[in-house]
Design goal:
globular, 434 residues, 10% strand, carbohydrate metabolism, cytoplasm, 12 strands, two-stranded antiparallel sheet, eight-stranded parallel beta barrel, 16 helices, alpha/beta, TIM Barrel
């Protein structure tokens, strides 16, 4: 145990009546939900970047946190890793996630970046031998450094494209070395600021070629993990090409990659796109590309991505309802892509933010499972579409033509009356479980 988290106990389940803030009230890893352990349903992951690399800054002010591992050099990077694995142990976290830039110091060139990453990956591997925490996914930070100001895969400079491709390879290698179950591509600056200097077709082709090479490298290495894309509509660019699930799926279909890639969907990004989280999850499930989630929330008074820990039972329950309906996670999980507020300075704040979020997700999971077991929501949904099961209506959808349908409407004097969507009744039903 490092000094940073000294005195903070390991978190265990004590039940809903517990007054101990350093305890789980709803998250019982071994509790069975729909015949499966809660830990195996939720598959929690700690985000390395927000928990250990974030310094407490915002667009109007700099660093507020004082962490002993802040600074350059491999010694600081290893100190950060020590603190990270201490926190994983305190929480009993089954997984973590990282970008390359979160875990290694920035080198003078690509070769030094690669050496630094490989060294810290071996340090991780040693620590993982005595830890229950595994790697949910790795990714590359291709947006933070000034070289990426015009994108990485979509950059007009071929040298930036090459640097990005090489960096992705090293991060995929790191993910494979650590037994990671997924690799994520987030287009942090894959978009444009103005159409006056942007060739949309060329940039789309470049992005597709990069993704094709990622898929090809996966197959060449024999890695059995999942390639994930994380949609986001804007911020930091004015318009990003991975706007939402539907947009990404259209891109995948355009380039014949829809069977190779799934989605890592973030709640905050869904809101920025003008959707609900459950909409994006349901859309991905309907398209067969639901892979994993980043669980957080936005402040609805702010117009930007605030990455706060989840605390809305209704929203979380509806999210897990869609996930359970889709069959649950396979290689994916629940990554807390969330950060504590810049005034939350204490080590205890970092631990308790995760404790509360894990409890919130457990509450949502239990509510979602109860709704599915109850069955009324699905029954009412089925009733709404039941007339499509009639033979004449099924035939109309399958092989009808406009002239034949017109003749049927005339002969049967079809004159439909509106039917209630029962929205408030359904919302009331959901509220009985949350």
């Amino acid at each position: 145990m490092t000094e940073f988290f000294k005195g903070i106990p390991k978190i265990s389940y004590e039940g809903p009546e517990s007054r101990n803030e350093f305890a789980f009230r709803h998250y019982d890893p071994d509790a069975l939900v729909m015949g499966k352990r809660m830990e195996d349903h939720l598959r929690f992951a700690v985000a390395y970047w927000h928990s250990f690399a974030y310094e407490g800054g915002d667009p109007f002010g700099g660093r507020t946190f004082d962490r002993p591992w802040f600074g350059d050099g491999m010694e600081k990077a290893k100190m950060k890793a020590d603190a990270a694995f201490d926190m994983f142990d305190i929480l009993g976290a089954p997984f973590f996630c990282f970008h390359d830039a979160d875990v290694r110091p920035e080198g003078a060139n690509f070769a030094e970046n690669k050496r630094n990453l490989e060294e810290i990956v071996e340090y991780f591997a040693q620590k993982m031998e005595s830890s229950k925490t595994k790697l949910l996914w790795g990714t590359a930070n291709l947006f933070g450094h000034r070289r990426f100001m015009a994108g990485s895969a979509t950059n007009p400079d071929p040298d930036v494209f090459a640097w990005s491709a090489a960096t992705i390879k090293t991060c995929m290698d790191a993910t494979i070395r650590l037994g990671g179950e997924n690799y994520v591509l987030w287009g942090g600056r894959e978009g444009y600021e103005t159409l006056l200097n942007t060739d949309l077709g060329k940039e789309a082709d470049q992005a597709a070629r990069m993704l094709e090479m990622v898929v090809d490298y996966k197959h060449k290495t024999g890695w059995q993990g999942t390639i994930l894309i994380e949609p986001k509509p804007q911020e930091p660019t004015k318009h990003q090409y991975d706007f939402d699930v539907g947009t990404v799926y259209g891109f995948l279909r355009r380039y014949g990659l829809e069977t190779e890639v799934k989605m890592n969907i973030e709640q905050g990004h869904a809101i920025l796109a003008g959707h609900s989280f459950e909409h994006e999850l349901a859309m991905a499930a309907s398209l067969g590309i639901l892979g994993s989630i980043d669980m957080n929330r936005n402040d609805y008074q702010s117009g930007w991505d605030t990455d706060q820990f989840p605390n809305a039972p209704h929203e979380v329950a509806l999210a897990y309802y869609e996930i359970l309906k889709a069959g649950g996670f396979t290689t994916g999980g629940t990554n807390f892509d969330a950060r504590i507020r810049r005034q939350s300075l204490d080590p205890e704040d970092l631990i308790l933010a995760h404790v509360g979020a894990m409890d919130m997700c457990a509450r949502g999971l239990k509510a979602a499972a109860a709704m599915l077991a109850d069955g009324r929501l699905e029954q009412l949904r089925a009733e709404r579409y039941a007339d499509w099961d009639r033979s004449e209506n099924a035939a109309m959808l399958r092989q009808g033509d406009l002239a034949a349908i017109e003749a049927r409407v005339l002969s049967e004097d079809i004159n439909p009356e509106p039917r209630s969507g029962r929205q408030e009744r359904l919302e009331n039903l959901v509220s009985t479980f949350v």
